[in-house]
Amino acid sequence: MTLKNLKKIVAKYALRYIPKKKIIGIGTGSTISYFIKYLRKIKDSIQGAVSSSNHTTISLKKNGIPVIALNDVDYISIYFDSADEINNNMDMIKGGGAALMQEKIIASASKKFVCMIDYTKKVNVLGKFPLPIEVLPMSYKYVKKELEKLGGIVKKRKKVITDNNNYILDIKNLYINNPIYLEKKINNIPGVISVGIFSQRQPDILLISNYTQVQTILNKS
Ligand code: 5RP
What we know:
Number of helices: 6
Structural class: alpha/beta
Largest sheet: 6 strands, mixed
Shape: globular
Oligomer: single chain
Bound molecules: ribulose-5-phosphate
């Protein structure tokens, strides 16, 4: 079975968490693209969706799912997204698709967060996947120097401008053994818009597809 199929399986499985007549939040990425295709079949059971990126908005509209602005909702019942890496404590790296800022906002604004991954994204220590950081363009050289002090190799992602007109810096070779500390530390650098460590807003429910089943892990913290 391919990774693509594992993503499809977990995306379909996540449909069981869709509440009736509520507003849901939707992340960004290939797993989410499959999720939206499955969601299309039951789209009349929800009120609409708050989208985390231009890409997701286009996909939702194409599939006939009403898109609602975050500022127009009282609350979001549940947020669905994937991740690039997740550790045993449910800390994550996200932002491979450069949508980390809105993803973090919507995840934080949602009562529940369901994260769906294939088993290859489960790790003991975060950092093998380059850590994405969204930065204000006028500050990126300063921020890059500050990030280099953390010990990794920092590169500006080529030809990428985020939906908020910012740049992405990726840090390679970081060994993230204290995710919450690093999330706060990087957030504190002037010029940083958002960091792809999701330690303060972890998923409540993690779904992991492997070759035989979808495993469900509830976040007890
Ligand atoms: C986008 C993200 C995605 O959730 C992450 O990159 C996983 O994507 P995919 O489902 O394509 O593997 O954080 O910013």
